[in-house]
Write a structure and sequence with these properties.
Rossmann fold, six-stranded parallel sheet
Length: 552
Amino acid sequence: MSNVRSGGRILVDNLVAQGCDRIFTVPGESFLAVLDALHDTPAIDLVVCRQEGGVAYMAEADGKMTGRPGIAFVTRGPGATNASVGVHVAFQDSTPMILFVGDVARGDRDREGFQEVDFAAMFRPLAKWAARIDDATRIPEYVARAYATAMAGRPGPVVLALPEDMLRDMVEVTDRPRVAPPVQTADPMAVATMMDLLKDACSPVAIVGGAGWDAGAAHHFAQFAERIGLPVACAFRRQDAIPNESPIYAGNLGYGPNPKLVERVENADLLIVVGPRLGEATTDGYTLVTPDHPGQTLVHVHPDANELNRVYKTCLPICADMREFAELVAAWEDEVIHFDAGAEAHREWLDWSTAKPTEAGLDLGQAVTALRAALPSDTIVCNGAGNFSGWFHRFWHYDTLPCQLAPTNGSMGYGLPAAVAAARRFPARTVVCAAGDGDFLMNGQELATAIRYGASMLVLVIDNGAYGTIRMHQEREYPERLSGTELVNPDFAALGRAYGAWAETIERTADFAPALARALGQQGVRLLHLKTDVEHITSATTITRIRERARS
């Protein structure tokens, strides 16, 4: 029996072989052969979006949730450049993802044809691997390598360009079987050394979450930390790395952390970093933990040897799969003395994460408290970038991974596309998109995608009429000299209803809980437009106080 197929058919068949069950796309004429093959492929759910930035964000979020590459298809030129933002998120967030880009025909290459870009050159700084498939017989090889590369070591994005004529070629080829990332076991001798360091430590702290972290790693590492009373902090926007109700959970690092946690990390004599790269946000610009960290011993556990000693002087590097390492330390029989610090750090976090009423007309701390009371503990909270997210980072309690979808590279417009991906991946779970006014309008068009696919989600548009984060920095550096940070916004509730969502506007704290109850009584997409005062610029300070400090 002949196995002759088009390049587009071979590509789709090999995606199915690799376990792909969902593709996010904006269609383009450059990959019509792929779209035609998908017409007869019920195993793959094709999610058609409204802009390629939304496509890439959804694929990145899907990769975060599944641990296997999220898959995106876009066309050449404008499609690829729009999608590049999601590739950057996947790179900095260590998320497995594959972006397929329809390209000009092979015979037209290097003529600056219609929408032509050298995609390998364009994406090389943003991706783990960027290449072009010129021979349809090599599609199985390239797809298998793309999956392996995206998942191996430190996960990340891969970009493959697809010449449109190559996708129409009829060839005979054998498909590749499903690939799995190699599992790097932890060296027992290195772990024994770490345990000896723990025995000698007075104030150890663990920082977890990041590359390769999964539910198994979370479960086993929490077991280990709880047994010895080790305080565990989560890296920036990795707050679901262990359940926050764990008696040793100490809170999150990043922007606006608990000052007591910052002090605890500064005073730690032993830092056990499992998963994070220790990037700029987690370390407050490489100052909370400095690259040479004098007076502190650093144990760094990471699945990619290239990350160990790359930026930080590592006293004990351990290259290992996160789950394998966590399982080993959870089962370690040589007991370490129990620390009281874990319980103390957790009490400090509980106090920090309990919202106290403020004078704000619409108090976001109280709103998040009402959300926690009304929604399940495994709710998936999705957000992009902006000061609005600080209320959720501080006052929401994250549970079972994945519960937090948020870009560590601070990319605006991420929350709504991520929520669409979460609602498709976990239709039985509650999904919340939290977005600022500036943040929301960077990808608000994906409400159309949410409505089309019957997504069930709660969208909170937090509207203070400003690019709040930039306004905060502006007031600190140039108080009262506003330039470029004020916004004039639409009626977001009316906009939501125009897309087909149920929507209401809220301006007072007392009105939030009743409106939330009404929203939860509806089906599909529910949008609450929260009009807040820019004076309350973060969960911890006001513009007035920022101005006073700037002048002092």
